[in-house]
Write a structure and sequence with these properties.
The structure is a homodimer. Chain A is α/β, with parallel strands linked by helices. In chain A, about 15% of the residues lie in helices and about 30% in strands. The interface between A and B is large, with 109 and 110 residues.
């Protein structure tokens, strides 16, 4: 039997990232941009506000005309025009003249203050309109000045960032009708294992349904790539080889689940050999997922994940996801690492680095991590409640409630530059 | 000018939820289920594991046959069969007979222990195969017993929960080939405002590009509903009425941005009146977004959000999102509320409840909230970095670094039952 030499998680991830290649960009319509990653910086193409604007409904005036106004000596202005949002007042203002102005409209050139509607009284004389105020205003009062929120030319969001609703608003504001985004890498998924039934098949003795493929397809989507399910890999080497060869024409990366151990039925090691792929590693000093294998052929990476659901899940998040993020121009392609307080004892010793599928609680403002679903590495139910991977370093002898541990966040669009030691 | 009476945020949300109606379900293929919300519980349709299974590659034996094994007195077993994962051994075992077994395979009925491959030595005599062990095993050693992870009939995930990759694994495992999920409500969006340019138009004096619509469409998607952009609402009341009437045929809810103030150009109040919609409220004691209006006609809710980008953003998250979640069967339809520590002073007094668009940091395991982008309510750039809404109660006079405040999480799939006091 082949003896495999385990490498550390850090070393394994480093090898994968060296092989990760580079991303491609594509230009899409803004309507398709939500949830993608930027392949260009968003730059303020104009100042914000683009002009001196009125934040209120009211009247634009020359502040000096209001100087004498007081409760006892109200000052009356003749209203010589009206500006709705989107229109512009082009006339000239004489002494004690005002312009009715709506929220968001451009303040006339001659004016330097806005009086809120509520602070005025109006009256008409014939066809002439007037408004009266009882206090003075200073130059600049109630004006949002051009550029006070954002200067022209400023980089507002950088290439590689996730496009959330706020980023969508910026794209629209600055006229990014078409947006350069990272092309989604296409990731093929093969399941292996003669014990696997399809989801619509009834259970049979000795068999289980194929859950890994459906899980991984969702993980691929969560990570921002395009999943392509390729079905079950045949049991015979020659059929297996041609299936893999065909798949590699269609995908940017290929994931297999199962078949990577050293058991008699594990064909993947032979597949890698036959197609001349370079095996980057085939054993990692971690639990679960020690048999995770990564190989490279040409520009394509082949991820051989374990057939065990939890090991498969963890292997994807540690090794496949950062490649997707890197190809999407993220500068922080790895899972976001933060500290958390253990919510219960975890007394199991950890000869190897252990990744415990856990849920988190933030209610009190302290990040608490609960590995309560932890049981054994094939307990499938715990994955439904998994928000984080708790990282317990190899060589540690167990942890107690309130101990501080590292956790890797799974649902964050933010990442880590390099979470490994 | 109409005088509006503000109601509290809690009261406003309560009114909206009373009008929220109920969700519909639809049955979809598992391949489409990721990211949706369950409209049925996931129940374990069989125990997990479904049979006594081997967690390792090795040999299945009768433990009692190994009783005498030791370093000095190894015991040899005749290997009478082989079980790959997915196949079943149907023969009977005699004394000191073993069956070669692969990871995941069903343990033969006669066996009660599995010996890991690494702890054995093999040899052959003619066509007969043998394996030898140097230590005894107890009944139950290295067997994952049927049902030890999950009993049959157990509810594993409840109706209303978000379908993440782990939930996908469960759906597949238990044969949910077709899944009942919440139908996504269709939400129409109209923009209003004569100052609005389309994203592809060049900037013009006094005008700005329409950023709210693109932002809201993304917020609708993030909240799990189906956005439908309906363009700009006409400026004339009659055209406006027929546009709204037509839209209501196509959507479950209707959002407008802008046009809800009491300004001369704000048509929405008249629209509500003309179509006979019941206005639930048209003023809320909050900043930003005090002019947020919600009306109901038949089963359809009309959300009149402010035209100010930040007010629009907040209005959506507080009032529209919980209706979407409620119709998706979530028991916790409101934004998840947690405590956080202020990362910097926020000295502005808050006469009304204030929702500050903020970013959070979790690095040290303590949730810190940073309102650094806070500036004025129309500062568009801050929304790109907004993860949470910080809630500062009305009547407070400012907060200092390290003060504990409430925040509402925007990117969480988990919610609150009722975050308001």
């Amino acid at each position: 039997m082949e003896i495999r030499k385990p490498i550390t998680v850090a070393e394994a991830v480093r090898k994968v990232m060296t092989a990760a290649g580079s991303g491609k960009k594509e230009t899409i319509h803004i309507d398709q941009a939500y949830g993608r990653r930027l392949a260009q910086d968003i730059i303020a193409s104009h100042p914000v506000p683009p002009f001196d604007r009125s934040p209120y409904d009211g009247f634009a005036i020359r502040a000096k005309d209001s100087k004498a106004a007081s409760k006892d000596h109200p000052v009356t202005f003749r209203v010589v025009g009206e500006i709705g949002a989107g229109s512009v007042f082009t006339g000239e203002l004489q002494e004690r003249e005002a312009v009715r102005i709506m929220t968001g409209a451009q303040v006339p050139e001659d004016c330097d203050a806005v009086v809120m509607f509520e602070l005025t009284t109006e009256h008409t004389e014939g066809t002439d309109k007037y408004m009266t105020i009882k206090r003075p205003f200073s130059s600049g009062d109630n004006i949002s000045f051009a550029g006070e929120d954002t200067e022209e030319g400023k980089v507002l969001v950088q290439k590689g960032e996730y496009i959330n609703p706020g980023v969508m608003a910026l794209l629209a504001t600055f006229g990014y009708h078409m947006v350069e985004v990272a092309e989604k890498p296409v990731i093929g998924v093969f399941a292996t294992g003669s014990e696997l039934l399809d989801v619509n098949e009834p259970l049979q003795p000795g068999k289980i349904r194929n859950s890994n493929a459906h899980m991984i397809l969702a993980q691929i989507e969560r990570a921002g790539a395009e999943p392509l399910y390729l079905g079950k890999l045949p049991d015979q080497l020659d059929l297996c080889l041609s299936a893999v060869g065909e798949a590699l024409q269609k995908v940017d990366m290929l994931i297999t689940t199962g078949g990577v151990s050293v058991g008699d039925y594990d064909l993947l090691p032979d597949v890698y050999k036959e197609i001349g792929a370079e095996v980057l590693f085939n054993k990692v000093a971690m639990r679960p997922g020690s048999v995770t294998t990564v190989a490279k052929t040409g520009e394509k990476i082949l991820f051989g994940l374990s057939g065990n659901p939890s090991a498969c899940y963890v292997g994807f998040e540690l090794f496949v996801r950062p490649v997707i993020s890197h190809r999407s121009f993220s500068e922080k392609p790895h899972l976001k690492k933060v500290k958390a307080e253990l919510a219960q004892d975890f007394l199991k010793p950890n000869p190897f680095t252990r990744f415990v599928r856990s849920s988190i609680d933030l209610t009190d403002g302290v990040l608490r991590v609960d590995p309560s679903g932890f049981n054994k590495s094939n307990a499938v139910a715990v994955l439904a409640y998994t928000d984080v991977l708790m990282v317990l370093p190899g060589g540690t002898r167990g942890f107690k409630t309130e101990d501080i541990v590292d956790v890797l966040l799974l649902d964050s669009h933010e990442g880590s530059e390099w979470p490994w030691e």
